[in-house]
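[09:14] KT: can someone run the structure on this one? pasting the chain below
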Amino acid sequence: MRWQNLMGSAMGMAFDEENKEGAISRIVFDSWYPGYVTQVNDAHNVISILTETALYRYATPHFYTVRDFPESYQDFTIAAFYPNPWKGGWWRISDAVEYCLTASKAVLATAARYKEKLLLDRYRMGRDAIKKFKKEPPFGWIVPEEQTDPSAAQSMLGILAEQAIEIYRAKTSFVQDGVTYPAGTFIIPTSQAFGYFAKNMLEVQKYPDLRKYPELWQGLIRMEKFKGAPFRSYDIAGWTLPLQMNVKAVRANSPLSVEMERVKKIEALPGKVSGNGGYGYLLDARQNLSYKAVNQILKKGGVIYRNTKSFANFPAGMFILQNSKVVKNMVNDLAKKLHLQIKNIKKKPTVPLVQVKKPRIGLYKSWVANIDEGWTRWLFEQYEFDFKNIHDAEIKAGNLNQRFDVIIIPSQWKKAIINGHKLGTMPPEYVGGMGYDGVENLKIFVENGGTIVGTNSSCDFLIDSFQLPVSNLLKDVKGDRFVCTGSILRLEFDPENPIAYGMEKMQPAVFNRSPVFKLHPSFKDKQVSKIVAKYPRRKLLMSGFIHGEKMLQGNVAVADVPLKKGHCILLGFAVKNRAQAHGTFKMLFNSVYFSTTKSK
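[09:31] RB: done, structure tokens below
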């Protein structure tokens, strides 16, 4: 932190020397979330500092007057962290570039001045991490080979390896904290140069209630107790990777005493097709790569079913591949390339089956830039779901049932979806949202048998626009009653509901400014909403911070709401969370398949 303060002061001095007004520090951002390039470097013993330079609507020039400033800045009061207030005027992209160049040159000049000291301190930080974690916990994490979804564990270990974390495998069986682990178990010691990064990624986060610690954020003459609502973190408060990815990773609370060897490359267990068959093959829906295999088979014309009830120790929702020339020619190659354990089935299961048909997927893309649309698109590409982006003009044109079985509305606020960019702020073709005509066409799409999927904040858009018999209990709730800015909570799923196939009964889920639902009765018996997932009546927080968790306990997180012939699926939590939440990807995937496999 001392080095960061030095770099920041050097940047501020450079701005003043070049008469570049308006530089402010110690505002907006915090250093809690490690997901930025800066914080990733911090945990790799590299000094970093996060800066942002203002723009007005991307590259649009804008003339600012004092009236555009927040009230507390309108009198140009000089402060310790804002010593040279900006007076307003024109601001262009060239100004932002010049400010960035000044900041970068200041950092380079400071680094050059203290070159030897910086390099020596980086060595010292790595040395001190090794020394510290040889003496005190956590001594590391243990990741067993046997996982519900081996691909998620492989992804997690791969991410750590890419970030230069040393990963080992046990050469023999061993006992750690009273538990016996077999040879081949993965071990991540914290006594390594970047041990703090491994610790940051794998441990449970406990975000502090800053009302209790005024010394962490106040800069006054004396510390003052704050009695208002809890302070929100700038970004995610809890990100524990094993919880997000539903990977079993056990903290080592005593020194590691096991013979182990460094892993040079993270490789999954080899896949294979096992058993003697006749009717077909079984793919495990608890494993994300099974969905990729299913998509490849559907594209080739293979026939796939899902069991609606458990059978032979397999839970509901497994993928059953009916034997055919197409399937037989693909299974061995799929098992090998995707590291899947595919089982032969001798006889057709006696439980009810529903056929999975290739869905026609529309992914809504607003002209208002939306990060969740990008993550959804990337996820569909990785798991080989065929989809088409659908823009406002296409929704306004209607006839959506002729093109799509399911439409995904990524997490986005209602105002941005309906109104889009204001006239005059963008070229004409990018102005305006889908409007109320587009909303009506989406409603017609659902009423005629289509499925629409809302994720996180877009659930409010669907509830309000379609007048669904659902309330968001957190809508307009103030911070003194509830705060939860990106944390991992316990969630209870119904594994026999098609949308939750492959999920465990109780599993971690990422809550990130999410809604929570109350379902209301309908006048029509056939129009009964179904609870897919809810918050249990127990302690919910697993990692991060929550204030007012009673508002969630016992209430609904995911619902299937019928609307005439179609369905609205409300995924009321961050099922993707920047493509990190491998443990809940299948909630999105199942919602897509639901559009063509639901009972008619």
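[09:33] KT: thanks! The two ends are 61 Å apart (CA to CA).
[09:34] RB: yep, looked fine to me
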